[in-house]
Structure formats: structure tokens, C-alpha cells
Amino acid sequence: MSKEGSFKKMQVLIIGAGFAGSVVARELAEAEHQILVVDRRNHIAGNACDVKDSHDILIHQYGPHIFHTNSERIFNYLSQFTEWRPYEHRVRGVVDGKEYPFPINRDTLNQLYDLDLDEQGAADFFEKVREPKAQVKSSEDVVLNSVGRDLYEKFFLNYTKKQWGLDPSELKAGVAARIPTRTNSDDRYFTDTYQAMPSDGYTAMFENILKHPNIQVQLATDYKDWLKQDRQYDHVVYTGCIDEFYDCRFGKLPYRSLRFEHQHLADTEHYQSVGTVNYPNDFDFTRITEFKHLTGQQHPVTSIVREYPTAEGEPYYPIPRDENEVLFKKYKALADEEKNVTFVGRLAEYRYYNMDQVVGAALNAVDKILEKK
């Protein structure tokens, strides 16, 4: 096409160097377009950024990121940029000072209630204690409908209050629907076909994604300052908060943030038995993650992180409530009118995406951009 003169190379500005921005950048660069990626932070990889701490332990700066997907396409796509370390994430929930498998499974029931249930017995137990809901509208409805009130109060109620600053009855059903209930003894947090961690870490994978002669990266740069320089771009890809793009003209969209308390334990080889331990009813933090479980590092010492949900700070989670969706749709209506701006990612689409879903959304966005040109 380019030899015939019908192919026009675009100058594309991509705002954000996380999954959405980096994948779009790579695909458009492969299509021979010129890409500038800017990010207000001083690093690539967005919230998936990992670094070696001062004790040589690879840590996730913004809390644990566990890759899992059922999509062969997305797994194979990312496999161009990283080798993988197989890893199946396991979580425990602490109730009355004791650890139990979470998500709730047969072993959770047997240990918690001193029972000896087989799979059918676990199914019968859930059926007996569940509170059937004619209409499942909220996260509270989902859990009560599935496991009943006692398990709801022990594992879900207070954790949700801490995590979201809201009662489960105030959150859309999809939040709790992400967490399964099992009648077998499968204690993996995820059951996806592909479960693995980038063998050299996420940041190294992002470096490979962005390593292309048609891609330039500018860090510690606010995109609004860049646009003020009156530079001309054929297309802009925006991965930040959609309300911020429009100067919050309809009001701020609510997001939930996190404060991370990293700690190095100089005299401990392993702090806990699994990657993450939830504390639904105790402390101000929701969970503790020990990174060596995730990364497979062999080291005589260890590093952990505690997560404290907050209302203020960097936006991490769109808050799934009907009134927030109504506000988002006002911004989306503006975005839909844009001719040369694409909005993609968790913050730009106000969607509680997993990492693989962001990659899928980015690949779909590229297809739409290229169709237009």
C-alpha cells in the first residue's frame, strides 16, 4: 500500500504507558505509524510496574498483579514479549485468627465447621444455608444467594466495606460475582486455562513491548502540558480517567484508591504459606502479599506489602454502582463524538477490567483505529 502512495503514516500520541497504551503503541508501530507514548509517572508498565527493592527482592509497587486468562489469543500475544513462569495463585482468609482456603471450598467448610463433607455434602450444605434471591441486584444478594449469611459475614461483609468504603448492598452484583464458590477442594484463586507470571517481571515485558523504532516514550510528562505545545497528531489514544480528560465538567467519577505499606523482613525467609492472605475482619488493611510466592525468587529474606484502601489518591478501581454508570455515560457520550481520540482501558472506559481484558480491549481498539484510516 505504501508503495502506491495510499498509505498515510499517522503521528499518534498515546497517553499512558500501562497495558492499554503499550499494546496499542506496539500494534500501531508495527503498522508503520509513528508513536509517542507519554506517562505522568516516571516509569512504564502502569500499575503492573515491578522493581527490585533495596534488598534485591522483586516487588510489585502497586500491589499484586497475577496474570490469568482463558484467551489463547491474548496469552500468545504477550508471549512475544516474555517467557513465563507457571504460577497458580492461592489465597487464605483469616477468620477468628485462623486461616482458611479462599475462595470458599469444601475444605473451608470442613475446617471452619468441623465437618467431613464430600463434594455432594458441600453442595447440600450450600443449598441449606443459602438465602435465595428472586432478583440478584447487589453484591450482598450474590453472596447470600450462594453461601448464606454466616459465611457472608465471616469472609465478605467487612472485607467489602474496607475495600470499597461501601456496604455490599450498595455495590453492583458483578463485584462479588468475580469470586466463585466451590464444592471441591480446588484452592486456586483462579481456574483460568493460562496462569503464569512474566519470568523476568512485568516491567521487563513492557520494555520489550515498547522496544520498536517507531515508538518514543516520554516519562514524567503530563499529557496536557504536551498538548499545550501545539503539536499536531493524527490520532490520540487516551488511557487515563475519562472525566479528567473533559476537566470533570459533569463532576468527578468516583474511584477507589489504595495505600501500600511495603515492608522488608530481614530475618524471615517466608512470611506466609501462600501469596496472599486476606484479613476481612481485622486491621485497617485488607490483605498481605508476599512477593516471593509470585515471582519464584529464591532468597533467604523476604518482602511483603499491606494494602490499605482509601477514598483519596491514585485512581485504581472504578466503583461499580448504578449512579456512577449514569455519570460515566455522560462522559462516554462526549467520547463517542470524538473523531480522532480513542479511549481504552480500565480508567478510560470506567470498567473493572482484569489485565487480560485490558489487552483484549487494546487489540480491539487498534482494529477500529486502523479501519478508520
From TrEMBL:
The UniProt record lists the keyword Isomerase: yes
Q: What is this protein called?
A: UDP-galactopyranose mutase
The record's listing under SUPFAM superfamilies reads: FAD-linked reductases, C-terminal domain, Nucleotide-binding domain
Listed GO cellular component terms? cytosol
Key words of the record: FAD, Flavoprotein, Isomerase
Q: Which family is annotated?
A: Belongs to the UDP-galactopyranose/dTDP-fucopyranose mutase family.
Molecular function via GO: flavin adenine dinucleotide binding; UDP-galactopyranose mutase activity
* The UDP-galactopyranose mutase C-terminal domain, residue ranges: 154-352
- Essential cofactor(s): FAD
Entry-linked InterPro entries: UDP-GALP_mutase, UDP-GalPyranose_mutase_C
Question: Which chain positions lie within coiled-coil regions?
Answer: none
User: What is the protein's species of origin?
Assistant: Acinetobacter kyonggiensis
Query: Record's Pfam families?
Result: GLF, NAD_binding_8
